[in-house]
Amino acid sequence: MSNPTVSVLGAGGWGTALAILLARPERKIPLWGHDPIHVEDMVREGINAKYLSGVQLPSVIKPTADLSLAAQSEILFLAIPSRYLDAITSQLVELCGDRKPVLVSCTKGIEQDRGLLMSEVIRDRFSKSTIAVLSGPNLAGEIARGIPAAGVIGSADTQALTAVQALFAGTSFRAYTSGDIRGIQLGGALKNIFAIAAGVSDGLGLGENARAGLVTRSLTEMTRLGMAMGGGRETFGGLSGIGDLMVTCFSPSSRNHQVGFRLGQGESLESITTSMGSMVAEGIPTAMSAQAAARRLSVETPIIDEVSALLQGLKTPAAAMKSLMGRNLRAEEEV
């Protein structure tokens, strides 16, 4: 696939950052957003003030509310919140008709109703298209500003891997490849839950030692559940596993960390989510999905269980942390 056409679907912070990263003088990038008013603002102002203020959009990025226009490209990057992905792809498949674009899922989550990974949600609609995933320690604001970053692209199709990886050549983003499409997605989805836990720890003022211990045990839990769900152990030790886990748990810019921090400070979940408006912290719905998967597979997930209880209002932040500290003593290697 030589010099393919590219579109980005999802005009939030991550989608906009991807569009900026992929923009080239010779490559026009349709950036699709669902809200026509938001799109008009981007066209008029030349920035995405709602989600990524202060970063100028290159002139080759063409914000649009016309999904049919974005659907015409050969490679489609889908940066759509998990709860809307199925609805958008159901429209998209009709618009694509007989064409079979490469679809790159950039969404980190697990579908709540069926427990599907995002690639599986897309596969339900695009049964004959090539599907890839993109994940890693990627804060949108930094990527949009050209600060060096790295991520991993996963697909079972080596030709698609090469084509998508080549799009990032010469940019500030170093793209690695992997065939472990499940492991990449599971790392990206599960780390959001642990970022909420880390935020709670910080909100309670428990200190650096507590957070380091929590994040370390989160990696163990992520690996244990992720392997049970079909991911490879080595993937969880890579960019989409420990890499993404670290940046999301330690950065105040992480939405999931922000949610946890505010919960730890005593704010209600309803108040937090209301104030976020259309911004999404994927760890909230993913916590319930991950807990359900753990129950089906008989996998022990104490941190996920406490976060789920906290989000459902069954425990206070302090009680959830106390439960984790009060668990039975054990050897560290007993994962």
Map the helices and strands.
Elements: E1 6-9, H1 13-22, E2 29-32, H2 36-45, E3 47-48, E4 52-56, E5 61-64, H3 67-70, E6 75-78, H4 82-96, E7 102-105, H5 118-125, E8 131-135, H6 140-144, E9 149-154, H7 158-166, E10 173-178, H8 181-203, H9 208-228, H10 233-236, H11 239-250, H12 255-264, H13 269-276, H14 283-297, H15 302-311, H16 317-325
Helix pairs in contact: 4-5, 8-9, 8-11, 8-12, 8-14, 8-15, 9-11, 14-15, 15-16
What's the short version?
With 335 residues, the chain is an alpha/beta fold. The chain has helices at 13-22, 36-45, 67-70, 82-96, 118-125, 140-144, 158-166, 181-203, 208-228, 233-236, 239-250, 255-264, 269-276, 283-297, 302-311, 317-325, and strands at residues 6-9, 29-32, 47-48, 52-56, 61-64, 75-78, 102-105, 131-135, 149-154, 173-178.
